[in-house]
C-alpha cells in the first residue's frame, strides 16, 4: 500500500525508525531493508540518532544493488536545545543558516543528493508558533523549492500549531510525525487536521506509549480471530485508519511480523472499537 501527500509524493506504508540504535544502527538498517522496509527515519541529532551510521548502511546496501531511488529517506532538523551540546551546525549562526548547515550535513552523512522528507523535529514554541518557528519553516520551504527534499514536515506538533502552520505557511507540511497515544483517540485531533489537508500522519511509540491496550481483552480477541500478535493488530489498525506507523524494533523476527501486518484485515467494527479503546 502506498500513501500520498497532497503534493502527490508517495510514501511507503511502514517506516523503520533508527533512534537509540547507537553503533548497531548500520547493522539494523541493513537488516530492516533486507527484511523488506523501504522507508528509513533518522535525525541529525547525535544524542538519539546516528545519522552517519544510517549512511554507512546505505553505502553497504548500494554495493549489494539496493538503489537510492528505491528507498525513502527521512531526516530532521533539531534545534540547539535538543542537540545535547553537539549541534551539526554553528549554534551562533542565524536559524536559516543553522537549517542549511544541518541539511547539508545530513546529505553528507547519508551519501545522497536529496532526501525524500525533511522534518522539523519539534516547534520551538510550546503554544502556537513563534518567530523562530516561522524562520525555520521558511528555510525548510526554501529547501523544498530547491528540490533537495521532496517533502517537508513537522514533528511533536499540537493541533493548534498544525492548524496555524496549514493556514499561514507558504508551503503546508506534507507529513506530521507524532507520538500516538490511544488515550487521545490515537492523536485524533491532529490526524483529522492531517486528513483535511492531505498530510500524511506518521505515528511513533504505537506500542510503547500504549501498554494498557496490550492488556485489553477485546484486542486479544481480535488478535485471536486474526491469528496475529497484538503488535501486528495495532500496526494494521494504524494503517487501516490512514496512518503511517513507525517501528523501532531491533529484532529480525519483529521486523518480519510488523511488515506482515499489512496482510491482515480488521473489520470496520474492530477498527471502530480500537479507535476508542482507551478513551
Ligand atoms: N520525532 C520524534 O521526536 C521521535 C521520537 C521517538 C521516536 N521517533 C521515531 O520513531 C521510531 C520508532 O520509535 P518507537 O518509540 O515507536 O519504537 P521503539 O521504542 O524504538 O521500539 C518499540 C519497542 O517495542 C518492542 N516490540 C515488541 N514487539 C514488537 C513488535 N512486534 N514490533 C516492533 N516492536 C516490538 C521493541 O522491542 P524489540 O526491539 O525487541 O522488537 C521496542 O522495545 C524511532 O526509531 C524514531 O525513528 C521519533
Explained architecture:
- By secondary structure, the chain is α/β, with parallel strands linked by helices.
- 42% of the residues lie in helices and 14% in strands.
- It has helices at 25-35, 51-63, 95-110, 131-146, 159-168, 188-197, 211-214, 217-226, 230-240, 252-260, 268-275, and strands at residues 2-4, 10-12, 15-17, 39-41, 72-77, 117-120, 152-155, 175-179, 200-204, 244-247.
- Helix 2 (51-63) runs parallel beside helix 3, helix 3 packs across helix 4 and helix 5 packs parallel to helix 6 (188-197).
- The two termini are 29 Å apart.
- The model has no long low-confidence stretch (mean pLDDT 97).
- The site of NADP nicotinamide-adenine-dinucleotide phosphate has 24 residues, from strand 10 and helix 10.
Report, as a whole number of angstroms, the end-to-end distance.
29 Å
Q: In DSSP terms, counting alpha (H) and pi (I) runs of 4 or more, how many helices?
A: 11
Structural class: alpha/beta
Helix content: 40-55%
Calculate Rg over CA atoms.
18 Å
The global form is globular
Topology, number of strands = 10
Helix-strand string: EEEHEHEHEHEHEHEHHHEHH
Contiguous low-pLDDT stretches (5 residues minimum) are: none
Q: Are any ligands bound, and if so which?
A: NADP nicotinamide-adenine-dinucleotide phosphate
* Sequence of strands across the biggest β-sheet: 3-4-5-6-7-8-9-10
Strand content: 5-15%
Average pLDDT figure: 97
Offer a concise description of the structure.
The protein is of the alpha/beta class. Helix content is 42%, strand content 14%.
